[in-house]
Amino acid sequence: MTVQVSIVGASGYAGGELLRLLLGHPEVTVAQVTSQRLAGRFVHGAHPNLRGFTRLKFCPVEELEPCDVLFLALPHGRSSAQIARFATLADRIVDLSADFRLRDVAAYEQWYGRPHPAPDWLPRFVYGLPELYREELRGARYVSGVGCNATAVNLVLWPLAQAGLIERAVIEVKVGSSEGGNSPGAASHHPERSGSMRSFAPVGHRHQAEMRQALGAFELHFSATAVEMVRGVLCTAHLFPVRPLTEKELWRLYRAAYAAEPFVRLVKERKGIYRYPEPKILAGTNLCDVGFAVDPHSDRLVVISALDNLMKGAAGTAVQAMNVMLGWEERLGLEFMGLHPV
Amino acid sequence: MTTLTCVECEGEVEAAADVMVAEILECPDCGAELEIVSLDPVTIELAPEVEEDWGE
């Protein structure tokens, strides 16, 4: 007897990635997938990689039936507006949007520029990053998704932040175009987008709220640049620690944090092409690679991470969180090792 | 089999029982090349390596 899951908003990139993972998950059956725009159409029309793997059709959200786990992959602001209804349909909900990621309603209003539609629901959700909140996720009923950029930052900074070693962090992420979703616009028009390196958020990116929530209080600056890539996030963080740190100390810190984690790898090689984390080889995987280097000429420490924004940065972590919620082995449905060359 | 500690990253490096002086081992964690410099006890040092020309 498998667990019945449904996806609300399955026509987008994150929803499609989630559907791909859930169709291959050994313990679940995908019951329904919704899209208002594509209701009545086969899902492989929106997600051609799924052709031949399922005959599912999109249905309108009004036709949703009760299930065991309901995934919400709606644009930001839509899940919270309907959360009370969704909660009548499933005992467990995983919401990939930003609606329930923040615990502090004032922080939501500050970063999202409007009042939260369902503030009473915020304390009921657990932030869905198993590496940081595994115990809270076990048995949880309501789980939020994670921000892709926030996850790249949180995973690489967390061992140092937890040890109180960061005084100041200046962080830059380079991201792929799929972070922008599948709604076309002038900014994604091929002649404008192709070949560009666009500083789309030099300041003020909303994911900073998730970073501050997870990492605590230290001076944190964040910028995001879109580069010529479809999937992927490369995070380069310049850290100024409270005291000088050696590379051996950093190896110990990162090993202590992540040696037992199924989806976080330490990547710091002395030679070769892939000496530090590289998002290209992580496409389609639920991995986050982390690495570091100590600047011998200053007090600067550079930490680096890479992930697939649609996987570890969204759908993959959502499935991992479901596995934790239901007491399953965390790797279930997430064992793809990536491609090389790609 | 002997387990050694990488002098670069403190990772675990396995050496065969019949390892010889001057043999080169590779750390599975950081990729450092480690040279066996003595056998009793088995001791390793960072092997000299040619730097790659990155970005020039």
Care to describe what's here?
- The complex is a heterodimer of chains A (342) and B (56).
- In chain A, 27% of the residues lie in helices and 24% in strands.
- With 342 residues, chain A is α/β, with parallel strands linked by helices.
- Chain A has two domains: 158 residues, NAD(P)-binding Rossmann-like Domain (Rossmann fold), CATH 3.40.50; 161 residues, 2-Layer Sandwich (Dihydrodipicolinate Reductase, domain 2).
- In chain A, helix 6 packs parallel to helix 8.
- The mean pLDDT of chain A is 97.
- With 56 residues, chain B is mainly beta.
- Chain B has one domain: Rubrerythrin, domain 2, CATH 2.20.28.160.
- Chain B is 0% helix and 41% strand.
- Chain B has no helices and five strands.
- In chain B, the strands form two sheets. Chain B has a three-stranded antiparallel sheet with strand order 3-4-5, with no helix packed on it. Chain B has a two-stranded antiparallel ribbon with strand order 1-2.
- In chain B, a hairpin with a 2-residue loop joins strand 4 and strand 5.
- The termini of chain B are far apart.
- The mean pLDDT of chain B is 90.
Index terms:
heterodimer, A: 342 residues, alpha/beta, Rossmann fold, Dihydrodipicolinate Reductase, domain 2, 2 domains, 7-stranded parallel β-sheet, 7-stranded mixed β-sheet, 10 helices, globular, B: 56 residues, mainly beta, Rubrerythrin, domain 2, two-stranded antiparallel ribbon, 0% helix
State the helicity of chain B in percent bands.
under 10%
SSE class of chain B: mainly beta
**Major sheet details of chain A:** 7 strands, parallel
Regions of chain A with pLDDT < 50 over 5+ consecutive residues? none
The CATH topology annotation of chain B reads as Rubrerythrin, domain 2
* H/E topology pattern of chain B: EEEEE
End-to-end Cα distance of chain A, whole Å, is 37 Å
Give the averaged pLDDT of chain A, no decimals: 97
Oligomer: heterodimer
At the fourth CATH level, what is the homologous superfamily of the largest domain in chain A? Dihydrodipicolinate Reductase, domain 2
Helix content of chain A: 25-40%
Strand order across the biggest sheet of chain B? 3-4-5
Percent of residues in beta strands of chain B: 35-45%
Unreliable stretches of chain B: none
Give the termini distance of chain B in whole angstroms: 42 Å
Which fold does the CATH topology of the largest domain in chain A refer to? Dihydrodipicolinate Reductase, domain 2
